[in-house]
Amino acid sequence: MKNWHPPSKQNVLILSVFYAITIAAFYLAATSINSQNENLAIARTFICILLLPILSKYILQLIALPFYTLKEKLQHKSNQKTNQSTLSVSVIIPAYNEEVGIIKTLKSVLNTGYKKLEVIIVNDGSTDNTHQLVTNFISEIKENEYDNTRIKYLQLNNGGKARALNKALKLASNDIIMTIDGDCLMDKNAISNTVKRFNCDKVGAVAGNVIVGNKSKAIEVIQQLEYLCGFFLRRADSVFNSVFIIGGAAAAYRRNVLLEVGDFCTDIVTEDIEMSTRILAAGYNTRYAANAVTYTEGPSTWRSLCAQRLRWKFGRFQTFIKFQNLFFSKHKQHNKYLTWLLLPIAVYAEFILLIEVVVLAVFFSYTFICNDYVPLVMLITLMATLIMLQVFFDSKKHFHKNLLLIAPIAWLLFLVVDVVEFQALFRSLKRLYKKENLQWQKWVRIGL
Fold first, then answer.
1. Integer Cα distance of 260 and 100 in angstroms
2. H or E segment at 75?
3. Helix axes 343-354, 356-369, angle to 10 degrees
């Protein structure tokens, strides 16, 4: 996989404009004379109070981040005293029209070389060449090439990803069940580094580190940046044993826990988030493996990205409604970090997103009218510094080095993300109000 692409003229133009805006902000902060406006100052104070719950959550997560490394070291010592390496793994690959990347995905799983491995490919009624590619690949494998790996292939009529996963679960026989999407590539150490986190029976699921592998377009780089920041904070959630979003692109579950809590839900479009939340509701811990990397292909068009985020947003709301009893739960088996912080703040953040236009209008009105650019510059500096630190501490920092260039303008890029998230929020609320469901969206893959 190539690590660098020459920037297109469009990307150069976007970079130039965003850098010009950022430099202008610093220049105005250094040269402008502040003029106070009492009404706007009050409004700004109100906005700060409004954002305080979200800021408090981020501060707590940042404080918890160093403890992730400490906890990892302690778990490593614990693993050395146990037979953790003896855990067997079943990797499930659900596929629907994945002819572009399914063989690369399958090879990446097999090339991990994990000793006790079983691979189950589920063809969910593909209408392209997926079936022929998979069957040819299996028949052409040399008998001794993957002598420790059992490969099973299941062909179904199209019934959705959750149903495909459930069918595969009935074939899986190993201790740990991992899932990976048919457009992803698994890093060589992804399985072994994931298994290490199952160092006690209380751990029900583990989330891997998903990286956007395509980064030649501006829309793809924005997703790369977004994934980096989002997954980095999961280290803090892992410290509190409460990672409630475990995406199917890199998810791992203890098989006995899945047998206890039941099959993947077919009524919720984000069956992976529903499952991880259900495992937490059952009293199990969930963790994050920062060095268990899977590369995914992010949408390369704005239309596809908007459709993807609609599904994520709508499915998350479905999950919140289903598990509403978790919010502020006092039950002993429920994680208080999850029930009193993560879940309530997740819903509150959607409310803030809904009124973000007003929030930004007040903030920038105060900035321009009062010539007070210092808060904006502080925000830009803090965000750029955090992104650089995230790149430095990521297990694939060489792959992310392109993000160092855009760190100073990340504040503008995240505004673009917010526009995409807002449309998803609006359309999700509209569907919930009208009691409309949502079908799985599919976009054209280019391949990693």
1. 36
2. helix 38-80
3. 60
Instruction: Report the pLDDT value the prediction gives residue 144, as an integer from 0 to 100.
Output: 56
For the stretch 208-218, pLDDT in tens is: 999 999 998 99
Report the share of the chain in percent with pLDDT over 70. Answer: 93
Mean pLDDT (the chain) is: 91
| Residue partners of 23: CB distance under 8 A and separation at least 6 | none
Cβ–Cβ under 8 Å, residues 68 and 237: no
**pLDDT computed for residue 384 by the predictor:** 96
Q: What are phi and psi of 259, to 5 degrees?
A: -65, -30
Long-range Cβ pairs for the range 395-398 (8 Å, 24+):
395/209, 395/290, 395/291, 395/293, 396/211, 396/293, 398/3
Distance of CA 259 to the CA centre of its chain: 25
375 in Cβ contact with 278 (< 8 Å): no
Query: pLDDT (tens digit, 9 = 90+) per residue, 9-41?
Result: 777 888 899 999 999 999 999 998 888 777 778
More confident residue, 159 or 289: 289
Task: Name the phi and psi angles at 158, rounded to 5.
Answer: -60, 125
2, pLDDT greater than 50: no
Q: Are 142 and 110 in contact (CB under 8 A)?
A: no
Can you give the length of the chain in residues?
Answer: 448
Residue 204 φ/ψ, nearest 5 degrees: -95, -30
> φ and ψ at 218, to 5 degrees?
-60, -40
Beta bridge partners of 179: 92, 251
Vertex 209: Cα angle to 151 and 53 (nearest 5): 140
| Angle CA 117–179–171, to nearest 5 | 60
Q: Could you state, in order of their start, the residue ranges of all structural domains in the chain?
A: 1-81+183-448
Q: How many CB atoms lie within 10 A of CB 136?
A: 12
> What's the count of helices (H) and strands (E) in the chain, helices before strands?
17, 8
Coil, helix or strand at residue 12 = helix
pTM of the model: 0.91
